[in-house]
Amino acid sequence: MPRPVDSILTYNAGRDPERLAMKYRHMRSSAFVFLRATCHLFPAQLPQRHALPASPAVWSCGDLHLENFGSYKGDNRLPYFDVNDFDEGALIPAAWDLLRLLTSVRLACQPLDFDAARVRALLDALLAAYFGALRGGSARWIERETAEGPVRELFDTVRGRERADFLDSRTSRRGRHRRLKLDGSKALPADEAEHRRVGALLRRFAATSGRPDFFEVLDVARRIAGNGSLGVRRWVVLVQGKGAPDGHYLLDLKEALPSALTPALRLKQPPWADEAERVVALAQRCQAVPPAFLHAVRMGGRSYVLRDLQPSADRVAFGDAKQPPERLLSLMASVGRCTAWAHLRASGRQRSAIADELIAWGADADAPRRLRRASRECMQTVRDDWKAYC
C-alpha cells in the first residue's frame, strides 16, 4: 500500500465511520480537496529545507489554505472576514504558512485550466499583499465598506442573512417548535446518549454564562462540515436563544484534537491546559475579533470548542473560470493581507517573533520568489500523493 494511504488510515483511525466514509469520498474529487483533508501530510510534502527562505516564528492556524478564510459574525455581532479555522494551530515558521496557502491556490486553479501567466499573477498578488502588509507593521482588518469582489459578497451574505431564513434552512418547523433537519448533507441523527451528554454540557456552560435560558438545548445532531475534520466528534446544537420560533441559535460543538503538525514541530510549543484551550487562544490571538460564543469546554474527559455555527457557504470559493480576473486578484490581495495581519497581531506572544522581525522579513526581496518556486514543488508532491490515494 502506498505510504500516503498508510498515513491517512492511521491518522483517521477511530473516527465516526459514517462521516469518515464521506471524507474519503470527497478526497478523491480533486487534489485541492485532498490537500484540505490531509493537513497531517504537509510536513512530509515540504520541499528540501534549503528551498524555503528563513522566516520568523509566527502563530498560525496550522492549516492555511484558501478555504480557511471566510466571513463570520464576531462576538460583537458584526461581520468580519478573516482566517477562521485554528484546529491545527501552532507556532511555525512563517514560510510554512505561505507555502501551504500558495500551494492551495495552485491546486484550486487546476480544475479551471488557468494558464501559467494567470496563476503567476494570482500568486504575485497574494505575495505582494502579504509582504506589503508586513512592511506596514500594523495589524488591521478588512472593512465591509472597502471590501471588493468575493470578499464584499461574503460580507453582504453574513450581514444580510435573516435569522428566520437561516433557521428555516437548517430546521423544520411545526407551529412554534423547531427541530434540526437530518438531511444527510449537513446533519445526521444523534443517538439518545449524545443528546444527554451535549444537553448536560450546555447546562453546565449556561450556569456559568449568566444566560441559562439562552443555552437551553432544543435539539442535537451530528454535524457534517469541512473536509479534514469529517468524522471527528462534532454536533450542531439548536438552543433557545432569544425565543421561539425565530430567535433560536445554532451552535457548533467540535472535539479539539492535537495539531496535525505536532510530530513535525521543531519550535518549542507552550504548555496548554488542553487542545480546546489552544484552539480558542490562537483564534483570539490571531483574529481581529473572535467568533460569537467561542469557548473551550470539556465533556467526558475530552476537550471541545463551542462557537456560533458558521455555514460552509460563508467561506472563500474560487468560483468558475469565467469570472473577471480582477475578482480573483482582489481575493488574493485580501487573503494575503489577512495572513500578514494575523501574524502581526499575534507577534511577540509566547516565543513568536516580534513585529520588528516580521517587518524586516517583509523587506526580504528574495523571499517571494523562493516561496513561489517552492509552492510549485509542493503542489507536485501533493498531486503525487493524491494519485497514490486514488
Describe this structure in words.
With 390 residues, this protein is of the alpha+beta class. The protein has two domains: 3-159 and 316-389, no CATH class; 160-268 and 295-312, no CATH class. Helices cover 44% and strands 16% of the residues. It is built from 13 helices and twelve strands. It has helices at 3-11, 17-27, 31-37, 42-45, 94-109, 116-136, 149-160, 163-170, 192-209, 275-286, 325-345, 355-362, 367-389; strands spanning 57-60, 69-73, 79-83, 90-93, 171-174, 177-180, 187-189, 217-223, 234-239, 249-255, 295-299, 302-308. The strands form four sheets. A six-stranded antiparallel beta sheet has the order 7-8-9-10-12-11, sandwiched between helices. α5 packs antiparallel against α6 (116-136). The chain is globular. The N and C termini lie close together (12 Å). The mean pLDDT is 95.
